[in-house]
Design brief:
This protein is of the alpha/beta class. It starts with a strand and ends with a strand. It has two domains: 177 residues, Thiolase/Chalcone synthase (Peroxisomal Thiolase, Chain A, domain 1, 3-Layer(aba) Sandwich), CATH 3.40.47.10; 156 residues, Peroxisomal Thiolase, Chain A, domain 1 (3-Layer(aba) Sandwich). Helix 3 packs across helix 4. The radius of gyration is 19 Å and the shape is globular. The protein has nine helices and 13 strands. A five-stranded mixed sheet has the order 1-7-6-4-5, with helices on both faces. A four-stranded mixed sheet has the order 8-13-12-11. InterPro entries: ACP_syn_III_C, ACP_syn_III_N, Thiolase-like.
Length: 344
């Protein structure tokens, strides 16, 4: 059998607490209606963290990792590397989430590192994992895992932030293995545009604008569009073309074309964009899952979509899966998976 990298399986953790479309609308002080939140933003409800520490970023990541181990039967002692895609907003700043997760799941033979490309990190992490597995004879099994709760920073009274009212909470994990024999990760393509690097982010709490006694309450709701006009004007022009370029390039690297795609594992964004992307690829709504009951859980979306699709039978033997991501900064990414037996 030729050398390849396959996906062993996935794991998910979702907080029990939810925020409904009505609650989101109410939080905007009536600027958005419940119906508009549902129809335009595409949110029926979303997962949000509860008060318990089990919904911390690192703890959720560990829970998803344990779920992945249960679902796959992989021995944690067989994991060689943990690539943690968990967000920087976590229980303790400057702690390494991957190493914490390593300890929580008993992966004592692994080494761990945190990687970050915002909501593109899952797809980027899977590419990094494949490249490591193909290049390093000492690495056979890698887990990509992480938690997300950046929605904590959303100010629902900030009209410019409506594109991020969908931010939720949760965690995902995916295990990749060298020469697994099935579910092959094929081509990937990633783009980034540094002209948008500081157009969005948490405004207060860093070196430029330190947290003070006077601004501490504002700081915790300061995820903002720092240059809203520049970012929105740019994304309106380049975002969809960049996504389609990533899709086409990843398919080309896989020896495939758009007509081969059977399932789109895509991030949650507004419904019109979701339908537009499906139309561009010639896919039906049944060939994707719109995450309107979960919200946008950052870099977890792609794992969640695949996880749900496997449960619902939308991905089966022979299905070509295209994973799509984008992250503020700005980055776009896509990969291709052939589900089922590896073709020689």
């Amino acid at each position: 059998m030729r050398k390849h990298v396959g996906i062993v399986g996935t794991g998910i953790y979702l907080p029990k607490k939810i925020m409904t479309a009505k609650e989101i609308a109410d939080a905007t002080n009536g600027v958005w209606t419940e119906e508009a939140v549902k129809s335009k933003l595409g949110i029926n409800q979303k997962c949000v963290p509860g008060e318990s520490l089990e919904d911390g970023t690192q703890e959720m990541g560990a829970a998803a990792a344990l779920d992945c181990l249960r679902n796959t039967g992989v021995d944690p002692m067989d994991i060689d590397v943990i690539l943690c895609m968990g967000e920087e907003w976590k229980e303790y700043p400057l702690t390494t989430s991957g190493i914490y997760i390593q300890e929580k799941i008993g992966a004592r033979n692994a080494w761990a590192i945190d990687i970050q490309q915002r909501c593109c990190t899952c797809v980027a992490g899977m590419k990094i994992a494949k490249d490591m597995l193909m290049a390093d004879d000492e690495v056979d099994t890698i887990m990509v895992v992480g938690g997300y709760r950046n929605g904590d920073f959303i100010d629902y009274t900030d009209k410019d932030m409506s594109m991020m009212y969908n931010l939720g909470a949760g965690a995902g994990a995916i295990i990749l293995k060298k020469n697994y024999g099935k579910n092959e990760l094929l081509g990937s393509h990633i783009m980034s545009d540094g002209s948008l690097a500081r157009d969005a982010g948490v405004e207060i709490g860093g070196i430029v604008n330190p947290m003070t006694v006077d601004n501490i309450n504002e700081a915790y709701k300061s995820l903002r569009l720092l240059d809203a006009k520049h970012m929105k004007d740019a994304l309106n022009v380049i975002s969809m073309p960049n996504w389609m370029n990533c899709i086409d390039k990843s398919l080309e690297k896989s020896g495939l074309t758009r007509k081969d795609v059977g399932y789109l594992a895509v991030l949650h964004f507004k419904y019109s964009q979701h339908i537009g992307m499906l139309n561009n690829l010639g896919l039906t709504e049944d060939q994707s899952i719109y995450l309107s009951d979960y919200g946008h859980i950052g870099q977890v979306d792609q794992i969640l979509s695949l996880h749900l699709a496997l449960q619902e039978g939308k991905v089966k033997e022979g299905t070509i899966v295209s994973m799509i991501a984008a992250g503020i900064g700005y980055a776009w990414a896509a990969n291709v998976i052939r589900w089922g037996a590896v073709q020689e």
